[in-house]
Design goal:
Length: 183
């Protein structure tokens, strides 16, 4: 049984992922019969789905878009671990949806497992998505963060997680402004 906290969490995830699925195709005019038959079913609520015989997890957005979750770490980054709906192989949850490909990673601080001294910050300004490198412990500490296996803010992900997918490279992250000592 799903509790109200899980329903609220799923709603917040829906808003986050709908924004990160990125733009799909835009059509104008009346749909043809074939297009009408391919229209996403309204009975499938936004969320994470996978077919019972497949390990591929997809995010279904309420607006008809769909993206593929890259790995369990990405699912965890979206807060979706444990709330994947497993459906039968003949399920039509993905029929008629605009597939936007791999889901981009949510904003946050990440470290690929092969890079022990480099972290990547993923951030957004308006509709623009960026990523940059944090290259030293001191730089990381300037953001009031410390590398720690138990730090919930920094997520270590597998190599080749394509953290910068659908984001613009911004170089090394700028240091945050030092607190002012002025009265």
């Amino acid at each position: 049984m799903v509790g109200s906290a899980q329903v609220r969490q799923a709603g917040r995830l829906g808003a986050l992922l709908a924004a990160t699925c990125l733009a799909g195709a835009v059509t104008t005019g009346e749909p043809s019969y074939a297009q009408e038959q391919q229209r996403p079913q309204q009975s499938w609520p936004a969320g994470f789905y996978r077919h019972i015989s497949s390990s591929t997890i997809r995010w279904i957005a309420a607006d008809g878009r769909m993206c593929t979750v890259m790995n369990r770490d990405q699912l965890t980054a979206f807060g979706g671990d444990g709330i994947v709906r497993v459906v039968g192989d003949r399920s039509t949850f993905d029929r008629g949806r605009v597939n936007t490909g791999i889901c981009p990673w949510p904003d946050g601080i990440y470290r690929e497992s092969r890079w022990s001294g480099i972290w990547q910050a993923l951030y957004s300004i308006g509709n623009q998505r960026y990523y940059c490198n944090i290259t030293t412990q001191q730089h990381l500490q300037a953001f009031f963060l410390a590398e720690d296996d138990k730090n919930p803010v920094i997520l270590t992900v597998p190599n080749r997680s394509r953290l910068g997918f659908k984001r613009q490279w911004a170089g090394d992250c700028t240091w945050p402004a030092a607190p002012s000592n002025e009265p």
